[in-house]
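User: two proteins, same treatment. go.

Assistant:
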Amino acid sequence: MGTFRRVILPVAWLLVFAVIAVALIKIAFVDGLESAAAGPAPLAQVDIPVVPATRATVTNTVEIKGTVQSDPAETVRSTSAGKVVQVFVEQGATVAKGDALFQVKAERAVTTQQPSQDGPQTAPKPVYDYFDILAPRAGTLQQLTTLMDQQVTVGEAVGKIDPGTYTVAGSVTAAQQYRLLGKPGPAEIALVGGPAPFQCADVTLKNNASDDGAASGGLAATGGGVGRGIGAAMVGPGSGSQPEEGGTPTGTLSCPIPSGQQVFAGLGATMTVSAGVAPDVVTVPLTSVKGSVKDGIVWIAGPGGTGAAPEQRTVQLGLNDGSVVEVTSGLAEGEQVLEFVPGAPAVEDPMMGPGQAVYGPMG
């Protein structure tokens, strides 16, 4: 046992260290010289993906999440000044537009003095006019504050009428507003847990920055017809990637619920709005376009494959459906364009492994 520790074990360690040293010398000198003689390894060739401009029918349909809301009560205001002499309805009654709610008596100014048979002229007798205050709209008389013999003035708020009607409304993003520039047509309303989807005709789009319903820069439109419009791809600054439907709300789309539909406030709803159809037009993917309304930029693939530099070209845009966009001029069917705007963020490819992505070529 002592001989093994003193002689055999040290010799075995020396052999191990010798093998390691020989291997390091081979890696450092022999393999290195062979690699240097063979020259540098060729760089990997990266193909720039291109797609052709193709003909297709673009249907500009936008889905917006909304909520059913009760329409606000309308204030009843006195249209005449005077003393209340009669009240025709009680609070809680159902009224039609134009129904008389109460009556006021107003003294008419008379300046002509009347002659007297017994002597000098006497002051004229007062003359009174009677005015009915009418309901401004149909609904339930939610509140009526007038009392007999009360003096009211013109414009004084004297009650409220609940219309008993509902409106479905939802927020829209900037991308959705640009897609709805061509005046939204009728909306199909699908209520969560409610009846079958139904049509809602009077669609209104209001920009949040506008108080009167007319959006600055032409971003607001009121329904009434379906046209091809001028909706275009909405992309962020410096990016040609497909627009995201999420984002900060910039407007509100609303439509009054048609009478006869059984709804109640708080129901969730999906509004499917059509803003035009462009049949048999030249289209490219949204990822290929950089731009905003009407004008855009695409990159034409260079001749001879991926080796030539792409050509930047300005095109005019039409409708888009969230995936492809209509090109109204500047590009012919069959022309090859880069699939991604140069410098665009990475787009994950589901056919590749985790963490792998396709990038737009740098411009």
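Protein 2:
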Amino acid sequence: MTDKTEKHELGIMTYLAPVVADNLDRHLGLTKEWFPHQFVPWSEGSNFDGPLGGDPWEPGQSRISEHARASLIVALLGEDNLPSYFFTILSAHGNNGAWAEWVRQWCAEEARHSVVLRDYLHTTRAVDPVALERARMAHMANGYVNAHEGDGVLRTIMMLSMSELQARVVHRSTGMISNDPICDRIMARLAADENLHMIFYRNLVEAALEIDPEDAMVALCDVITVFGGPAQQIPDFTALSQQFKKAGVYTSRMHIDSVINPYVRHLRLLDRTDLGPAGRQAQDRIGRYTNRIELACRRFESMRQDPQLQSN
């Protein structure tokens, strides 16, 4: 990173620091304390095989759907890697002041998610605990590589705002297809947290658009058109994601309707007129990207509705 870029990044972070402080106060006033242990059906639990001599896990012991299981594993493994996210984000934002206070608060809240998910999955015997632990070890040993590392604080904030929005959508969908009201309640609780986290980061993005609309639009274009959340670095993510994609947990239609379009509309990205040549070019790319995804979704949906194509 050049001296000029470092000064620019420092300027952005300095400008956004009071915005971070204000939004941290706002967040603390809205977030609700909750306790993971109160959401877990402990009375259903029993010992596993091993030192305590319990029964080994078998697939038939799970009451949740296979697709929900895959989605829950992805959610849990993503939360498990919090130490890597914490280090990466704190390194980018600094270890003092409002930035650091927010990152610590955010990670503490996200850690609740891994606690309740693992306790629920183990207690209800919803997943193979050995395979789950091996996946956790592999994922955490690999660490986390920010896809926008070195690209600046703006892209990191934007990626996080979209990742939290995506997580909210996936959590609610997972709960609804789980066939278990307890799981549905847990995922609704997690989705509520993710929504507040998304709003926090999105508010920072709005502030960045006001201070430097040109650079912010270019950064947003980069993130939106090649978006990939931290979960994509989970081992076997492609195979796992295909399972809950088929079940409708998260589809291309949901990506455009519930994540991309609401995000673009809220920030009024396609309506801004305060842009220079690079900003207008990025704005145009975002518009073409959303149109392309929408067209692809319509074509896929038409193919699914065509009896002749379905029979082939």
